[in-house]
Design a protein that fits this description.
This protein is an all-alpha fold and 156 residues long. It is 66% helix and 0% strand. The protein has four helices and no strands.
């Protein structure tokens, strides 16, 4: 049996992509695209959101939060998704990226609610998405550890 610390160094499983990995990559890509769309809309003021909501923030217009959304959510999610879909990237960065992506999304929503003090139905939805990203990353890790513990095919 392979020790947990050696699991990701095992060439049989080190680059393994499981269903959880592909689901994670797809979810990360979805969040990245949504954040780019949302950030762009904020920058262009397409939603004409009230500036009064920014009173507890360092921003005077919605352009700042739009840039922050793209920088803090979209870009890290794109990088995390790339770590899943590029076959030459080991699983470890993909799993770590999934944990960070989910954590950053949760932190973003908590910070948004705390600073804006405005509730919108997408906030709990995106909070759940962040939790799901973390769960998928952990599931992927568990799948890799379980497959490393199994003997290779054809061996007892």
């Amino acid at each position: 049996m392979t020790a947990p610390s050696d699991t990701f160094d095992d060439p049989r499983v080190g680059n393994q992509r499981t269903r959880a990995a592909w689901a994670l990559g797809g979810l990360e890509l979805f969040v990245a695209l949504a954040a780019i769309g949302g950030g762009s809309a904020l920058i262009a003021d397409r939603w004409a959101m009230p500036r009064e909501w920014l009173a507890n923030t360092p921003f005077g217009t919605w352009a700042g939060p739009g840039v922050a959304l793209i920088a803090a959510i979209a870009m890290p999610h794109l990088v995390a998704a790339a770590a899943v879909v590029v076959p030459s990237v080991p699983a470890r960065p993909g799993i770590f990226g999934g944990l960070l992506a989910g954590g950053s999304l949760i932190a973003w929503i908590v910070l948004q609610v705390a600073l804006l003090r405005v509730f919108f139905f997408l906030q709990p939805v995106m909070l759940v998405v962040g939790v799901v990203e973390i769960a998928l990353a952990l599931w992927w890790r568990r799948d890799i550890e379980n497959s490393a513990a199994r003997p290779p095919r054809g061996q007892p």
